[in-house]
Amino acid sequence: xxxxxxxxxxxxxxxxxxxxxxxxxxxxxxxxxxxxxxxxxxxxxxxxxxxxxxxxxxxxxxxxxxxxxxxxxxxxxxxxxxxxxxxxxxxxxxxxxxxxxxxxxxxxxxxxxxxxxxxxxxxxxxxxxxxxxxxxxxxxxxxxxxxxxxxxxxxxxxxxxxxxxxxxxxxxxxxxxxxxxxxxxxxxxxxxxxxxxxxxxxxxxxxxxxxxxxxxxxxxxxxxxxxxxxxxxxxxxxxxxxxxxxxxxxxxxxxxxxxxxxxxxxxxxxxxxxxx
Length: 276
What we know:
Elements: H1 9-30, E1 42-43, H2 48-53, E2 58-60, E3 66-70, E4 72-75, E5 78-81, H3 87-106, H4 113-129, H5 140-158, H6 169-172, H7 178-194, H8 200-203, H9 225-228, H10 231-241, H11 244-247, H12 252-265, H13 268-275
Parallel strand pairs: 1-3
Antiparallel strand pairs: 2-3, 4-5
Helix pairs in contact: 3-4, 3-5, 4-5, 7-10, 7-12
């Protein structure tokens, strides 16, 4: 990933990316790997104003292959867009999950509640939880779409139909709603990084301040909306604001139990303050 200003796009997009591409190709050749140029994609990320200022739309490689810049791309099963709004990701996820829920509902009468819960958790809820830390900071509209998927899952397990009221179904199933599930995932990832149970590059994001009498993680400065959503900012901020008995948990299982209990009992205002 390379950062640049729109005014220097000709230097970065024409020369720097070509040099980067050559280095990647050299590394792959060194390890007897083949780079498929026809499947290579390059995306420019930024806000709408910045993207409009970028006039270069493609790149010519030394081999003669031309690569057009794309506005949407997939990485590890997640669909990203140039503005990192995740609109297409949520749309695709919603279609896939509701299709699965409809198929489960066709055989629902053959299964009891426990069996339905296992199937729904395995086939649908797991899709909602996959990389759900990326959903932090998305628009309320998209978060509502994700919540509709979870509501449909709960109705399937509880034997309800499309227009039935939810009441306390999520609480009865002991499911956190989507906003709190995202915070739970970020908290768990942060805790594992602090105690050394995550890759080194994640552990380096969490550094304790060496002043004062309380243990506080350093929250780095950021200059953009994208920076405010990064784990290096949200992780330390979240861990600093969680109750001390949760952060100082002796092991991962205890931390997960305490954090889930706290998120269940916390008010909406308290949840917003955790990452504000």
